[in-house]
Design goal:
It contains three helices and four strands; from the N terminus they run H-E-E-H-E-E-H. The chain has 134 residues and is mainly alpha-helical.
Amino acid sequence: MSDHAHGKGHVPDANVGQDVVDYSKVVGVGVGSLVIFAIAIWWAFMLYHSTKDATEAKTGKARPVETKTMPAEIGIVDQVPFTSDHRLPKWRAERQAHLDSYGWVDRNKGVVHIPIDQALQQVASGASPAGAPK
């Protein structure tokens, strides 16, 4: 057998079995990507302002900026913060006003409602409306 067949006298390559990365190419691609991104941002900024200026020139006034920070409802889900939600006290006041007042239930049939306290006193005293079962 020769020495060459067993690898004797053969000089191995120094880079065999190692990953070699050309960092100059990696940095070049990164810098190039950042430059393209910066140009795209500048272009979008210029498009936005030219559209805004054209709109203002057409209408003669700047577009109003909406100051509402959060919609009251998104889809069907209420998003009202608890501290600013006054619907329940308003609803309770409306219901209490209805319970404490006189009014028509059905005008055609002659059915009315009376204040709840008066109705409770009448029921407690044994009174019943005309036509009610005994």
